[in-house]
Every structure is written in C-alpha cells, then in structure tokens.
Amino acid sequence: MAQARVKVRTARTARTVRTARRESRGESLFAERFAVFAECLLTGVWVAVASLGVLTCPAALAAGARHLHRRIAHEGGGLREFVADFRVAVRRGWVVGIAGWAVAGAVWVDVQAARAGIPGGPLVGAIGVFALIGAVVALLRAAAAWTPDAGWWVLLAGAGRRTVLDPAGSFLIIGGLAVVSASAWFAAPLAVPVLGAVVAAAVAVEERYRHR
C-alpha cells in the first residue's frame, strides 16, 4: 500500500513538473501534444534508418525509446543523443537481433509446414505466429525500458513477464503493430514514420505499468 502511494505521488509530481515547464514556455497543451506526435514520426524515420543493419533493430528501438523519454520529460536531446544511445545499445543488442531472426526463421518453417499439409501443421503454425507476436511485444517493451547500464537479457526476461502479466498493455502494442502493417499495406513509405508511434506506445505502456 505504501509503495502504491509513493508511485501515485511520483506520477503527480512528474505531471506537475511537465505542466510547469510547458507553462514557462508559453506552450499550449495542444501544441505540446502535436509536437510529441511530430517527434514520434521523426523517431520512426531514425529507427528505420538505424535498423537497416538488420541485426541493429533492437538497438535502434532502444535508442528511439530513450529519445522519446527525453522529449516527453522536456530534457532536450536530438539526433546526436540518439546516435550515442544507439552505439551503446548495439554493442550487445546485435546478439538479440540474431536471436530475433532465429525466432522469425523458426516461425517461417512452421508456416511452411502448415501450408504443406503436414499433420498438426496448422496448429504448430498458429502457435509459432502467436509466439512471434509475443516475442516482438517483449522486444518493444524491453527497448522501452532500456538504459545504457542495463543488460539486454535481463531486460528481455522482465519484458517477457510483463507481456504476460499486463495483457492490456501488450494488446495496445499489438494494435500499434497492426497500424504499421496496415500503413505498409496501404503505402509502404507510411510504415517508416508510423514506426515511431509503435515505439511511443511501448514507452507509454511501460510507464503505465511502472506507475500503476
């Protein structure tokens, strides 16, 4: 109970600080939220470019999440800070990238087995797809909680637990992934900036879980 009260007081203090900073700049609530939305789209572009190395995707997501954390907290920061975070995150994040592609490859094999009509193939394929979605959600939650001194495997273990224990937050992230998929289907270039909205959703979900 005492811990819950501390979390509530901390959240209220953070909101008060953000409001004071916004008022000191003479910025309206609408202007602030629009600026955050624009920052999310820009972050999506940065994350997409940083992910071109394929194995660098986890590090790119982590750097993007750190950037949005700073933007929401009005701590400044820009491309230079994003690149610095990315360089730190990629030192061990590339191993996570290998693991992620290994999981994706296993799911692809399961789906091919289902299409080939192998007995039990459809069930195995469905389980594989659900496992892949869960892994992507856990990766996004881990990236949203990343800090330069955090270990990736510890983050992923914690994110995996939160993915199961906080289904509402996980479904919100899945909704963001669905928006990215729909954007890519409608017009592939749209998926690039919208990717930042998914990172923002992961950040918001992690903050919600931390302060609940």
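The above is record 1. Record 2 follows with the same two-line structure.
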Amino acid sequence: MDTRNPSAPAPARSGLAENNHPNRGHRHSGHGGLVHENARHTERFTVIGNHLAQHEELSLLAIGLGVHIQSLPKGARVDIKSLAARFPEGATRIAAALRELETHGYLRRTRERVPGGRIVTRTVSCNRPGHRSPAADDHSPSPPPPRKRPAPRKALPAVPQPSSPAPALLQTATEVLVGLRRHDPRLLLSATDAEHLTPGVAAWLERDLTPTAVRHALTSDLPAEPLRRPAALLAHRLAAQLPPPPPFRPPAPPAPEPRHPLRCCQGCGCPFRSPDYGYCPACQSDPPEAA
C-alpha cells in the first residue's frame, strides 16, 4: 500500500543507499537538525495524519495514545484499565489523555445498554476529526424514528343552548344521550362528547318534547355505513332539526274563591258566609262572655 501525502515532508534517501552509492560518501548538513532514514512499508503499517502527530494543543502522551489507538484492530479493548495494563503511565494519566483526544475529536465515547441490561462503553476512533464514515455510523446508535403526531381532533359542531339550564333538565338530557347506545351501539358516546351534546338535548326538552320524542329524532334514519364520528352527527341533528318553540299560552287566571252559604253567628246572631256553623270573624276575635 502506497499512500502519498502532499503535506508530509518528502522522504529522504536511506543512509544505506547513500553510503553504497558510488562516488557519494556520507554528508553532514551544515547545520544540525533531523535527518529521516525511511524505508517503505508494505505491511503492518498505519497512516497517521500530521494534524495528530504534530498537534499543537495535545500533550505528548495524548498524541502517542492517539497513534496507538489508531493502529489497533477493530474490537480491541481501549478502556482505561486495559491501556493502563499495557503502558506504564498509569490510569490517571491515561484517563486524562483520553479526555484530551475526546475534546479534540479523535475519540467518541458513548455508553450503551446491551442485551441483558449491562452498560458498556463504545469507543469510536476518528483519524480525521469532523469526518464521519458510513462504517463508523454503523456502530453508532441510530436515532429513533420521528413519532407521527396524531391529527388534532376536529371540534364538534355547535349545539343549541337552553334558555334556562336547570339541573333537573340537564340531568334528563344526559340520560337521553347515555341511553342512545341501547337503540344503536354505534351511538356510544364519550364523556366529553356527552357533555358537549347535553345542552342541545336540553334545548329540545325545553320546547315541550318528551325524552322519547327526542330519542326518536336522534336515532331514526341513521346511515347504514359505520359512523366515524357519531357525536358530530348528533350535534348536526340537534342544530339542524331543532323544533320551534311551543305557542305562547297566557297564564290561566286564578280560580274564583268559593261562595259559601249564609250562616247565623252563634255569638251575636249576625249572618256571615261560612262552610260551617260557628262564630263570625268579629266574634272569633272578640268572643262574647258566657251568659
């Protein structure tokens, strides 16, 4: 495998090639510095970006640990305990180096629950922070699919309102609505729907209709197909078929007082009207002395 990296310095010729080249001896530069003696890798090698190897903010331990982690095969254990057993730096320094790598995007660590209820830490090594490969995404927990929100419940049509919503009238109206399911099981209503429809039934009862007549008007000639919204159908009938108010009837005049026959007062002897014999009103208030 031959990967060219234009940002990396050009490899120098090996010292062995320099020494063996005819008419060319070992030459020293005029100033001190690094001299590369490179050999081409054909197996067991890892490509490391200079952004990690020459990172300006990572510690030397974090850079070395990052290089080591990128060189490991898939499935290798890179938890603090395993790394502390491999290197002499100790768990505290290794934990700090892992946090550095995580801060700068070279590691992603997530805690997941596996079958059986056990919690494990999944570590993803990123050789180029900010780039997510499909293979890495395969190991990341997939986001939950968005839940489809139920459509908002359509409001029921308005119903007539009674002029005087007496408690007894509303109770009778509720009993009419609750009893509709005995005539047609499709007219089973929820408590919310019954509460909405009750004033409409009360307005019908207020117009001199009996509960039986109201029940018949709401349950007769229903469609044969399933009723998707029975409460909406009942609300429409209550509003569209509301009967007219009863004709005006003037209040009946009060009954005349009965005319009693004349009686003779047993006290003063004066006549007065009374259903029975006895004393007149004057003698009742001031009865005569006994003779």
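The first strand starts at residue 107 and ends at 113.
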